[in-house]
Structures are given as structure tokens and as C-alpha cells.
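Homework help board

Subject: predicted structure for assignment chain

Our instructor gave us this sequence and asked us to write out the predicted structure in C-alpha cell form, then describe one feature. I got the C-alpha cells but I'm not sure how to describe them. Can anyone check?
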Amino acid sequence: MNNKKILVCDDDPGILEMLELILEEEGYEVVLEDKSVNALKKIKAEAPGLVLLDIWMPVISGDQVLRAMKADGMPMPVLMYSASTDGKAIANAAGADEFLAKPFDIDVLLNSVSRLLER
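My C-alpha cell output:
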């Protein structure tokens, strides 16, 4: 597991681009995945120190991806985010390490990322 590598899975190119810019500026290596159906394979191949996962994505939702990660024994922490009002409950039920409501504050995001990577 690479503690400087973060995999971001989101179907929104604007969110991916924003997160990539913010995280790279902080010195992290960022891997992007815009299709949740490819997320598990990409996570296995990249072995990131942290996964950022949107909850609402087409085909496979973020909570389904997280459940599959847990079933597969993938140890890395997962920060889930969503604009949905029930996002926190969904993230908690799936076993996310942390949840952020969109739109999120950049400093709050970076604090969460730093905390999760230091575990």
C-alpha cells in the first residue's frame, strides 16, 4: 500500500479534475477512475493508501464498491462523499472510514485525507 497514493472514483469529470488538482498540489499521487465497474480492478492494481469514493454512480454505487472491497479483504481506508441527504447513513452502513457531504470544504477534505493516511 502506497501512503502517498490516492485513488478517486467518481463519474463526474469536474469532481475528478478538482480533486486531482487539490490532492496533487498537496504532494499526493492521484489515480482517477470514472467508471465504478472498473474500480475494484484499479484498486487492486494500484494498491493506494486511500480511496475516495462517490456514493451515487451509474451501474455500481460507491457503497457496493466498498462492500466488494471489504469482502475482498482490501485493507485501505475509504472516504465516501455524496450530495445525498442520506449519504452519511449509506456510507456508515457500507463501512466507510469517513464521510463528507458535498459540497465539501477543501480544508476539511485535506484534514480527513491526512488523518486517514496516517493510520
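Reply (TA_rk): Your C-alpha cells look well-formed. For the description, you could write something like this. The two ends are 12 Å apart (CA to CA). That's the kind of observation they're looking for.
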